[in-house]
Amino acid sequence: MRLLIALILPWLTFFTIGRPVAGVICLILQITLVGWLPAAIWAVYALSQYKTDKKIAAASQRGQF
After folding, report:
1. N or C: which end of the chain has fewer CB within 10 A?
2. What's the CA gap between 24 and 11, in Å, rounded?
3. CA distances from 7 to 11, 16, 25, 30, 46 (A)
4. Nearest to 13 by CA among 53, 34, 4
């Protein structure tokens, strides 16, 4: 679901992963029509990094690191 949000409303993705400052910057970028595509790419990248960080945290909780 977050991936769909990242493609349609990139700025909202940052708020859902706890990065409100990046969300505001992304919203400013998305306001311009030219900036919408880079904003969407940035949001998808940030979402993938967020998921990776969560997996690493879960693995370290289980004692694998």
Report:
1. N
2. 7
3. 10, 14, 16, 11, 12
4. 4
